[in-house]
Specification:
Helix content: 40-55%
Structural class: mainly alpha
Shape: flat
Distance between the termini: 43 Å
Radius of gyration: 26 Å
Strand content: under 5%
Amino acid sequence: MSLTNDQVRAIARLARLSLDEGEVAEVADKLANILGMVGQLQATDTTGVAAMAHPLDAVQRLRADEVSETDHREHYQRNAPLTEDGLYLVPRVVE
């Protein structure tokens, strides 16, 4: 898949990247290579392949769920401008 220079400029603008005119063609080639690799991955037949979270059958060692430090909430909330019932009060930002 090839990208036009205008598409590369639009992608760069969305990514907040500043590209010189000389870099646009180079970036377009690199993006085309990446999209080509993604196309190859999508063309792979994965029928019958079970999804997995990790490629190895490793088991995570678990530790006991024990309290390892004391509660410092009151100490930390003394520095906050507003608290109520153990919660931090903040200005409403969503209406």
